[in-house]
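Subject line: Sequence and fold of a protein, written as structure tokens
Area: Proteins and the way their chains fold up in space.
Start of record: The labelled sequence and token lines come straight after this line.
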Amino acid sequence: MEIEQSSYFYHFLEPISKELAFVARELENSIFNSPRTMLTHARTFVENILQKVIQEEKLSEDQRISFLEKIDLLNKSELLPPEIRNDLHFVRKVGNEAAHEPRMFRYSEALSSWESIYRIVKWYVEVYGPVSMAIPSYQDPSTQINPSYGIVEIQERLKAVEELLVSSLGKTKEKSESREEEEVAATISVPESISPGLSSIRTITYKDQQVNIPYFLRDVFLLPQRFEKSDIFLIRLGAEQQARIMSELPNNLEGLHRYVKRFNEKHEEVLFEELKQFIQEEKDRRKLMMERPGELFFFFKEDYIVVTEELSKIALNTEEFPGIPNLLTQLNEGQMTRVEHLPKELVILGKYKGVGVTTVEKLFKLLKEKQEEKDDV
């Protein structure tokens, strides 16, 4: 589920540098999720602001000088007010500690760095930005109510936007003042502002096709029953410790069939197609659960049922659910006597002896009818 984040605090930097603005956005996301990550990458953000100043002032062609050397260079050139120099040293020092020391870093340290960043950005915009640009008053980042970004996800997003930022600095020296180049710069590609968990963490390919794996599915269990045409292939691969979870799948599925006997390239192709379908279904389910927090669901393929308290109390017997006695008998033997005992993922029920997808689908339809009956009352 994509979310609108045009209101992230540093969006006002976009006319000056989209790259800077989007690095700042990711720093804002990380403050309450990973203070260490925020402090570490705040160094890069501020150091690149200094590099922009150095280029503006034509002080040095060498981008490889250290953060400290950049501060000293600008200070010797009498370009840094004392309070800004102090803020730069603070961001540098605490960032170095976060990068190297194993101690716990606190929200208060990340917030202090956030305040220093604001003063540094304000100075930079006032001195080197458009005269007409309005700089908003300082604002603390709000704690996130929605699910948080994972640490690895934050780091990957920061890495992507920082690479764009460093690349843009290298191009600045060569950029002409032509209108055409300005238009190209205005359309620079940056990572999307999406809800936590949906950032692409890796890409799996098969021949000329590819599918992006979102962060929330990085280590998801690949339940064979979710892959109707590839279930046996996945079971055999799982026995070889090759495809039990998403992270065990190789980045390229070509040749995967060689790990097991009597399977071929066609099975790889079918698995790839079902993998794409699985990922889309999982994204749709995640969106549903985020839009309806606190609710329980039963899922069957791409469909679902909301589990109300009334539905959950219905007995699992042949009177309530006719036509599937074999499944009901086995469920009852396993102490599943009411609807609330059923698994969220109904295809799991296909594991029972003599029970196939058709039987599970019939149970799902009966559950749906029960729900609709309750709605009509």
Remarks:
- Residues 295-377 form one domain.
- The longest helix spans residues 265-291.
